[in-house]
Specification:
425 residues; single chain; TIM Barrel; 16 helices; globular; 40% helix; two-stranded antiparallel ribbon; alpha/beta
Length: 425
């Protein structure tokens, strides 16, 4: 097995943002602070689901459709949420929770909460400088942010905005391009690399086609009308980007620039990944000296292979339902994967919307969870202030629910706090 290098450690946490629940949890009764620059339209957004409703109004139909949709019949997308609904809490009472804390240590870094920002492709199309917005908000809140390999801003710019950001790679189809991309990520200064392994072929995202979305986008009268009828997005995101930064391109799929996001005839190179194997993962482990995370595993057998091949952590994920429709919800296989690989942190994404979801995943063995779409919606409707508020809302929910469960430290969360809904009935 390739040698695993030690993780970079950060010795202290970033101070809490205004309005964020402190480690002691003493200000649960207060609403999160909007902040001096936060738009007043954010005042009525009280949970992560509210950001989706707001984004539906703000974004043109194709852009919202890309963010919200999944593969084929959206069965896995719905199943991700349903899995969390299968569990009820069993709270403890008369526990002194006044000094509770949700701080978490992961891969040598002390984070202020047990959740982070999942990779969100094309973020700069739905919000102005979207990847940088997410990176800055993550740094402010002291939570991890995973930059997507399908982003439209150069990875070098994002890591300057947040030196602790992680980078997620969609592997090119040959050894030379894999090596070149990994070397570029290392030179840029990223310390944690996430390799997504559940995309051997492009998914059947017919919902994107129905919404008028393609990559690249094709100029059309319908596309123009969608933009004109959403002037705040048109002027505040798309035209502002064109004027200040030129036409966005896929910047980080390779070591070199890819195709533009808007073109009448250019095709995006999705690369042939059908032949990729664990030998390519071993290649990456040999040339990458930082933390190495595998994302997209749903099988305990694959989890053990990843661990033995040198993975420092695993993210159990079905890509938010965007790849294989009918793939099992990550929460359902999480306990088995945790049992198979107790030596390394097992994390989860797909379907997390509430603080209660975060705590249910932790009770079933996850070390950490990642949230995707809701934070993309928050960036779209409110920019950095929107993401700040969304993170604060989720932290507040985690802290409040810890109090009502009788939990003072996240290390206490285990399966004894849960019961299956059917069992309870």
């Amino acid at each position: 097995m390739a040698h695993r290098n030690s993780m970079h450690t950060r010795s202290s946490s970033t101070p809490s943002a205004p309005g964020v629940v402190s480690a002691a949890g003493g200000n649960d009764k207060h609403k999160p602070d909007r902040g001096a620059c936060a738009p007043r339209r954010l005042d009525d957004l009280l949970c992560l689901d509210d950001f989706e409703a707001a984004a539906r109004k703000y974004l043109p139909r194709p852009i919202f459709g890309y963010m919200a949709g999944a593969a084929e019949r959206n069965r896995s997308l719905r199943a991700n949420r349903a899995a969390f609904e299968d569990f009820d809490f069993v709270p403890r009472v008369l526990v002194d929770i006044s000094k509770r804390s949700q701080t978490t240590t992961l891969l040598g870094h002390h984070y202020a909460a047990p959740f982070g920002i999942a990779p969100l492709g094309l973020s700069a199309l739905s919000s102005y400088r979207g990847d940088i917005v997410l990176a800055r908000s993550a740094a402010r809140a002291n939570v991890p942010m995973i930059m997507s390999g399908s982003s439209l801003i150069r990875l070098e710019e994002v890591v300057r905005a947040n030196p602790d950001a992680w980078f997620q790679a969609y592997l090119p189809g040959d050894d030379a391009n894999i090596t070149a991309l990994i070397q570029r990520v290392a030179v840029a200064g990223f310390k944690t690399l996430v390799v997504t392994v559940d995309t051997p072929v492009a998914a059947n995202r017919e919902n994107n086609v129905r919404a008028g979305f393609s990559t690249p986008l094709r100029p059309s009268l319908r596309l123009a009308w969608d933009g004109i009828t959403h002037p705040r997005w048109l002027f505040g995101t798309f035209l502002k980007t064109l004027l200040r930064h030129g036409m966005p391109h896929f910047e980080n799929s390779y070591a070199t620039r890819g195709s533009p996001i808007l073109s009448p005839n250019v095709e995006r190179d999705f690369s042939d990944r059908g032949h990729l194997s664990w030998e390519h993962f071993a290649l990456i482990r040999n040339i990458w000296n930082g933390g190495l995370v595998v994302k997209g595993i749903l099988s305990s057998k694959d989890a053990r292979i990843a661990r033995d091949a040198g993975a420092d952590a695993i993210i159990v994920s079905n890509h938010g339902g965007r790849q294989l429709d009918g793939a099992v919800a990550p929460l359902r296989v999480l306990p088995g994967i945790v049992a198979a690989c107790p030596e390394i942190p097992i994390m989860l994404d797909s379907g997390v919307r509430r603080g209660s979801d975060v705590l249910k995943a932790l009770a079933l063995g996850a070390k950490f969870v990642f949230v995707g779409r809701p934070l993309g919606y928050a960036a779209a409707v409110g920019g950095e202030a929107g993401v700040n508020k969304a993170i604060e809302l989720l932290k507040l929910e985690v802290s409040r629910n810890m109090a009502m469960l009788g939990v003072t430290s996240l290390d206490e969360m285990d399966a004894s706090f849960l019961i299956r809904s059917l069992d309870a009935a």
